[in-house]
Write a structure and sequence with these properties.
alpha/beta
Length: 313
């Protein structure tokens, strides 16, 4: 009984000594009314400062490219175009965005005016543009979509294009820096229907004293440098010529361009195609029929125009 009582007294003594030790430790700590905890706001600021300093150490000095794609009823081609171009340009580390210039009005297709409209819509946010057909896909990785500092860069040169091989051809894919396109006053707005707008633009470029550059050291040829996904039977081109269209569109146009373009933006849509962001501009072009009555050309008018042409000859 005495032994149990002695053990109980020792147990109480140990507890008392432990309590005294804890009290002494707490009393030795500095007393403050403020918490030294990290402020969440300060943490966010520090996080942002870190990333800002990281960006300053690794700046992106590459100019941004706006790919302008004149478009009407080519959705199948677009589904192929967007992922292909994204993979192709990502390999080159080119900052880019695809803009589909969808002609929303009832008039005949006007590729040049669509490009003019697209340029006006993006020029303040990009350093250069690519005038790019939706049915022409580059295959050779040595076709560099680099900033065309010295002059227009024609990616789809006549020696590489699957179809067009004349020396002054600049269609398909043409890159220009914003300042040069502005200086040229863009493209002519007179070309309703298919063809010749590129040929007129070539004359503008040469008259401005600019040199057209083309890719070098390309070892592929016209059969394997590009994939041309145009189906002639399914996608018939509007080659009709009515009124005095043939005569007018074979001359240098010194009257129309960016500064005379009349259009309205019906809507803007953001799409994602296989993970690739694409912006669609639905564009309504306007037509001054006193200047270009061929913006509408039905079969009867076309037949009459052909008959008048034969009569004159």
């Amino acid at each position: 009984m005495i032994v149990h009582k002695s053990m109980y007294i020792r147990f109480l003594a140990i507890i008392a000594l432990a309590a005294i030790g804890i009290i002494l430790m707490i009393s030795s700590l500095p007393i403050s009314d403020t918490c030294k905890c990290e402020n969440p706001v300060d943490r966010d600021v520090q996080h942002e400062k870190f990333h800002s300093s990281f960006k300053e150490l690794h700046p992106s000095d590459k100019q941004k490219l706006a790919i302008l794609v004149p478009f009407r009823d080519r959705f199948d081609e677009l589904l192929r175009f967007a992922p292909h171009m994204s993979a192709f340009l990502n390999r080159q580390l080119v900052p880019f965005h695809i803009f589909v210039l969808n002609q929303n009005d009832r008039y005949r297709f006007n590729r040049a005016s669509l490009i003019n409209a697209g340029f006006l819509l993006v020029k303040d946010h990009y350093e250069y543009i690519a005038m790019h057909d939706v049915d022409l896909l580059p295959l050779n990785n040595n076709l560099k979509y680099e900033y065309p500092a010295e002059g227009p860069l024609h990616i789809s040169g006549p020696e590489f294009h699957p179809k067009y091989h004349y020396a002054t051809f600049i269609g398909g894919i043409l890159l220009l820096k914003v300042e040069h396109y502005q200086m040229l006053n863009g493209m002519s707005n007179r070309y309703w229907g298919w063809g010749l707008e590129d040929d007129e633009f070539y004359v503008r470029i040469k008259e401005a004293g600019l040199e057209v550059f083309r890719p070098r050291n390309i070892t592929t040829g016209s059969e394997n440098t590009f994939l041309h996904v145009h189906d002639r039977l399914h996608r018939r081109r509007d080659t009709a010529k009515c009124f005095n269209q043939r005569e007018v569109t074979r001359r240098r146009d010194r009257d129309t361009g960016l500064n005379t373009l009349r259009y309205s933006l019906d809507s803007r849509r953001e799409l994602t195609i296989d993970g690739v962001a694409v912006t669609v501009f639905n564009i309504n072009l306007e037509c001054d029929k006193s200047q270009t009555p061929w913006c509408e050309c039905d079969s009867k008018v076309e037949a009459k125009s052909r008959l008048d042409s034969k009569t004159k000859t």
